[in-house]
Amino acid sequence: MSVRLATRLVASSSRLPSCSKSSFTIPIKPVRYSFRSQSTISTPESYKYNGITYPKDSYSNVPSSILDKLDRNLHLMPSHPISILRQIVENHFNDYKALIPSSAIVSVKQNFDELGFPLNHPGRSLTDSYYLNKEYMLRTHTSSHEIESYKKGLNKWLLSADVFRRDEIDSSHYPVFHQMEGTHIWLNSELNQLNELNKNLENQLKNIPIIIEDETKISNSNPFQSHHNPIYTEQIIKHLKNSLNSLIFKLFGHHTKSDGEPLRVRWIEAYFPFTTPSYEVEVFWQGEWLELLGCGVVMQKTLDQSGVSDKSGWAFGLGLERLSMVLFSIPDIRLFWTSDSRFLSQFKQGEITTFQPYSKFPPCYKDMSFWLPQTDENRHESTSSSAGGKTLNPMTSQKQFHENDYCEIVRDVVGDLIESVTLIDEFTHPKTNRKSKCYRLNYRHMDRNLSNEEVNELQNKVQARVVEEMGIEMR
């Protein structure tokens, strides 16, 4: 997400002018902080949710700002875009069981171990995921409920839920979002019925204006599972593709009415840890290919762990925010979380309508420049790592600087007033080898003007927190 500048920015914590009703206001005076080895912030020793206590340990990293969103349930609000999209998919697959998990808290075993995530998978990192403690976490995907759902004996179901991931800050990323996944499995003794089912689905697709581009094939990089019968697996794949092509037309078919051109859908080979063969699906939308969802044939070991070794089938997963932003023309992901009636009143249950912007207030830019902590490891090496990159042992007090940790503090202090955080410069001192970074924080309220004074106060709080908790030194 960073932009490398040709020349080093020798920036104070607030070198750009802020925006309010006027274009330029007086920038705040830089504030100098020193690092304190012991945190003075008093925090509870445990998390409490739904009457259950989760003791904290060295893995605990869920801020109160995230806990506050556990019960928002945007996907259950009838006239909210996220919920509208969920209902449209559920209505399309009207004979599938709709599932809503009761809690976002799952075990690490559910979220990673049962699904075959290796111990060094980046998603397990403290910089990528929210942990209540070493054993429990906030789910990072709806697949964490896959095995428990198969154990219920259900053969076709749709599951919708909010999921949580530490991430960058911009108009399309948010630490809480919503996923939906669906699956259809059959007893192996019933797979001979698939040929007839596929004929019926293919006849339905012939009568709608859709062009399907599909050059996928079985290969070493996208293989059949060795213990599956290739003939039946081919029929499972056909049923998967026919079912999802029909769903995509349901969601995007109105596009064909507006310009008279058929809808174009493209299938691409992909890799997912829980399916093979696996695919991604794209739709040609507003002049470019848009990725919609991932899918594939369910890994047999997942079904084996669920106690249904005698079944086979397919599964898919999609992001409700991503699709909603496209279908409803919503420009900023933060809008989904607003309680402003000017947003919520625009949408009606069961209808996809175009969002009408009701305001656009000016941004307030503040730069924050700082030296990275002088740990033994980063005296001679870069301390920045990509999401899920190398992280020091959580049991130690020293750790590498990670952008997700920085963004998490910004979110926790500023909330939804932060529109984006962008790395604009990196610098290594030629003599001391100390490394510095400069981030540009873009503050913008969705519903009103921000004053320079309130942004300055927020910026100061962010600076104090990152110094306190990350061991950096402001420049």
From TrEMBL:
Keywords: Aminoacyl-tRNA synthetase, ATP-binding, Ligase, Mitochondrion, Nucleotide-binding, Protein biosynthesis, Transit peptide. It is found in: Mitochondrion matrix. It comes from the Eukaryota. One of its GO terms (molecular function) is tRNA binding. Pfam families: FDX-ACB, tRNA-synt_2d. Residues 359-475 form the FDX-ACB domain. One of its GO terms (cellular component) is mitochondrial matrix. Residues 161-357 form the Aminoacyl-transfer RNA synthetases class-II family profile domain. InterPro entries: aa-tRNA-synth_II, aa-tRNA-synth_II/BPL/LPL, Fdx_antiC-bd, Fdx_antiC-bd_sf, Phe-tRNA-synth_IIc_mito, Phenylalanyl-tRNA_Synthase. The keyword Transit peptide applies. The keyword Transcription does not apply. SUPFAM superfamilies: Anticodon-binding domain of PheRS, Class II aaRS and biotin synthetases. Belongs to the class-II aminoacyl-tRNA synthetase family. This is Phenylalanine--tRNA ligase, mitochondrial. It comes from Kwoniella pini CBS 10737.
